[in-house]
Design goal:
Elements (H helix, E strand, L loop, with lengths): L1 H12 L10 H9 L2 H13 L10 E2 L11 H16 L3 E6 L17 E4 L2 E4 H16 L4 E6 L4 H10 L10 E5 L2 E3 L1 E2 L14 E3 L5 H7 L2 H7 L4 E6 L10 H10 L3 E7 L9 E5 L2 E5 L6 H4 L12 E10 H8 L6 E5 L3 E2 L5 E2 L6 E5 L13 E4 L2 H4 L12 H15 L1
Parallel strand pairs: 2-5, 2-10, 5-6, 11-19
Antiparallel strand pairs: 1-12, 3-4, 7-9, 8-18, 10-14, 11-14, 12-13, 15-18, 16-17
Helix pairs in contact: 1-2, 4-9, 7-11
């Protein structure tokens, strides 16, 4: 009864009295939510500054272009990276908290299967095979940390169990869950899901650092003397999870963070772009890019701000630990989500009806004075699977993957 009373007080204080059928499970959920923070986030929605095209204190970044450095220098970077991998002080982290619903797939996105060179493989299997390739090449078994979500954690682990971890040593793969934040409707009320509980959504890929600390992942890495961690997404078929060139550059340049980029294919491509603001590297998400910055070109007609973030990031363990203690900013996304109204009726909205609050991993870049930026190539580094059909679909990713394999294997 004490918990129920506390929950009612919180709901009343933060104007969430539309929640009437309070039970034990719902009360426990209410007590775990930071409604003070949620209220502040909602206030940011209403106070959000419109796109003013202000690009003061913003300048382009300088990326290392492999095609413009000598073979000797390139080989030296790779050698440095390979030596670090062989030492066992390198690990891989996969962000795999999403579901495959946008692909018409019922289950975790990493379990989505497609046919590559006449063989059916899931996204998870493709990743494990890349780890196995490194295992053979460098004579070392790399630790792999997979970030799931409360929604797909059990299904993800079951999938690995049923597939015997695709032949990879089970003890080298660890799972951990990312955080969540409630969805708010346009009036600042938390949405109630079909199960009668407050509807939650992932707090974004930038929550990985705190989740690593909370779930003991950082401690595990330190016990294993891991110094560098590549953090990549589950849905890019061409990610180089064991990126020895990027690793070698980071070590040589004595930086704590490095990222591999590609050049945007147009001002409208839905990718964040790297720049410097007040001397610090940052990424401006595609939904937040000012028009003047989006269309800025140099004297040759090339985009000045074309260096795009493709979720191929390398972090020193010290950087991960530091980022886990900092409160990265939340970004606001407008979403469409099914919910239960006050009368217990399930409403399927026809348009966007709620706000989602998420952190982005690249907001950690500004915690450091410098990061290394390596320019990659789209045909070698970026074959994402985001949509069921059309651009960035299984069809386009499969084509790019098979073409890459044909040229490089």
């Amino acid at each position: 009864m004490e918990e129920m009373d506390k929950a009612r007080e919180i709901l009343k204080k933060y104007n969430q009295t539309h929640i009437k059928n309070l039970n034990k499970e719902l009360a426990e959920q209410v007590l775990k939510i930071d409604f003070e923070q949620l209220q502040e986030l909602y206030e940011q929605v209403n106070n959000k500054v419109a796109d003013s095209d202000n690009i003061d204190n913003i300048e382009p970044v300088k990326a290392i272009n492999p095609s413009k450095i000598s073979k000797e220098e390139l080989d030296n970077y790779i050698k440095i990276g390979e030596n670090k991998v062989r030492s066992g002080k390198f690990a891989v982290a996969i962000m795999a908290g999403g579901q495959g619903s946008r692909l018409g797939h019922n289950g975790p996105k990493g379990t989505f299967t497609l046919t590559l060179n006449s063989k059916q493989k899931s996204l998870f299997q493709i990743i494990v095979e890349k780890l196995q390739d490194a295992q053979k090449k460098y004579n070392v078994t790399l630790s792999c940390y997979i970030m799931t979500s409360p929604e797909n954690n059990d299904d993800t682990i079951d999938f690995f169990e049923k597939n015997n971890y695709f032949g990879y040593p089970k003890e080298y793969i660890k799972f951990f869950e990312q955080g969540e934040q409630p969805l708010l409707d346009k009036k600042g009320k938390v949405l109630i899901g079909e199960n009668g509980l407050i509807k939650l959504a992932s707090d974004g890929n930038g929550g990985i650092f705190y989740s690593m600390a909370k779930n003991g992942i950082i401690d595990d890495m330190k016990k294993k003397n891991i110094e560098w961690v590549f953090i990549g997404s589950v849905d890019n078929l061409l990610v180089k999870y064991v990126d020895t060139l990027l690793l070698g550059i980071a070590i040589d340049k004595k930086v704590k963070i490095a990222t591999r980029t590609i050049i945007k294919n147009s001002p409208y491509e839905k990718v964040g772009v790297l720049c410097k603001r007040n001397g610090k590297v940052k990424v401006i998400e595609y939904t937040e890019i000012p028009k003047k910055m989006r269309f800025a070109v140099d004297e040759t007609g090339e985009m000045i701000y074309g260096e795009s973030h493709i979720m191929c990031n390398l972090f020193n363990i010290e950087a991960i630990e530091k980022a886990s203690t900092k409160e990265l900013k939340y970004h606001i996304a407008v979403k469409k989500s099914k919910y239960m109204n006050e009368d217990g009726i399930i409403i399927e909205p026809t348009e966007e009806n709620c706000y989602k609050f998420e952190k982005f991993i690249f907001d950690s870049f500004c915690l450091f004075d410098e990061i290394a930026i390596l320019r990659g190539k789209r045909e070698e580094d970026f074959a994402p699977i985001k949509n069921e059909k059309g651009i960035d679909s299984p069809e386009t990713a499969k084509k790019m993957y098979e073409e890459y394999i044909a040229k490089n294997v």
